[in-house]
Amino acid sequence: MWDYNEKVMEYFLHPVNAGEIENPDGIGEEGSLACGDALKLTFKLGKDGRIADAKFKTFGCASAIASASIMTEMIKGLTIEQAEKVTNKDIVDKLGGLPEQKMHCSVMGMEALQKAIANYHGSKGKQTKKIEGKIVCTCFGVTDKEIEKVVLENSLDTVEQVTNYCKAGGGCGSCRGEIEQIIEKVRGKKTKQPESLSHPKKLTNIQKIELIQHTINEQIRPLLKSHGGDVELVDVEGSKVIVAFRGMCSHCRTAEFTLKDVVEARLKEFVSTDIIVEEQNIG
């Protein structure tokens, strides 16, 4: 299990402000179910122009729920201008820390807030800044501008850190070289490839299988079950992971997409970048 502190677990097990505000002044949605994390934030202003209420709906892990929950508490009573300055680091600090691999949950919360504020400005006819840049990580739809932002705001130095904060590079890995160039450009120094990537820790077969099963249980199965499907671990042969789809997933037209862009991408992110996932051959 992830090493969550007591405050994160409290906000995960007993989240506050869960739900959706009717006729909100601002709506922000971030993430996607295809990537395994999604968040919807709504807020309402009071007569004094400050945020009187904020609620969230999220599909994600304990970190996503805790980050969104505490963020809604943080922004209550703030003006729009003050809320615009809330960063993912503020969210993490308020929670007392998050596992490095879960920092992207705090970023998702911050970006949902920024989109909700942009939505508010748009409803008032104000000019809003559009997100610019080109897609660098096609697996998770992350742009160069988004990568530059997390590198700058969180003083990141490695591709592994970027993956932890915004998922870029956590799928097929083809964008890793470009991410390194972005880091070098933003930080003004040559990036160091993390030792854990060039010399990955050796897992025993039992440890590897346990980590794969844990990732399936926490990161993959909840997403598939929300659409009436499921997945089971059948076997592990070196770097090859064999799974079987159940329920709706067993005869879905997008099963190949789910296999590579959800199951394999998640296992690459949380277990090992050399993992290849195959569906059990029936017949």
How do the helices and strands line up, and which of them pair or pack?
Layout: H1 6-13, E1 26-32, E2 37-45, E3 51-59, H2 62-75, H3 80-83, H4 88-95, H5 103-123, E4 135-137, E5 142-143, H6 144-154, H7 159-166, H8 176-187, H9 195-198, H10 205-225, E6 229-237, E7 240-247, H11 255-270, E8 276-279
Parallel strand pairs: 7-8
Antiparallel strand pairs: 1-2, 2-3, 4-5, 6-7
Helix pairs in contact: 1-2, 2-4, 2-5, 4-5, 5-7, 6-8, 10-11
Task: Let me know the average pLDDT.
Answer: 83
Oligomeric nature of the chains: single chain
Class per helix and strand makeup = alpha+beta
What does the main sheet amount to?
A: 3 strands, antiparallel
Radius of gyration: 20 Å
Order of helices and strands: HEEEHHHHEEHHHHHEEHE
**Which CATH class of the largest domain applies here?**
Alpha Beta
CATH architecture annotation of the largest domain? Alpha-Beta Complex
CATH topology of the largest domain: Sufe protein. Chain: A
Give a written overview of the molecule.
The chain has 283 residues and is α+β, with helices and mostly antiparallel strands. The chain has 3 domains: 6-123, Sufe protein. Chain: A (Alpha-Beta Complex); 135-196, Arc Repressor Mutant, subunit A; 205-279, 2-Layer Sandwich (GMP Synthetase, Chain A, domain 3). It is built from 11 helices and 8 strands. It has helices at 6-13, 62-75, 80-83, 88-95, 103-123, 144-154, 159-166, 176-187, 195-198, 205-225, 255-270; strands spanning 26-32, 37-45, 51-59, 135-137, 142-143, 229-237, 240-247, 276-279. A 3-stranded antiparallel β-sheet has the order 1-2-3. It has a 3-stranded mixed β-sheet with strand order 6-7-8. A hairpin with a 5-residue loop joins strand 2 (37-45) and strand 3. Helix 2 (62-75) packs across helix 4 and helix 5 (103-123) crosses helix 7. The longest helix has 21 residues, at 103-123. It is globular and about 65 Å long. The model is unreliable at 125-129 and 190-200 (pLDDT under 50).
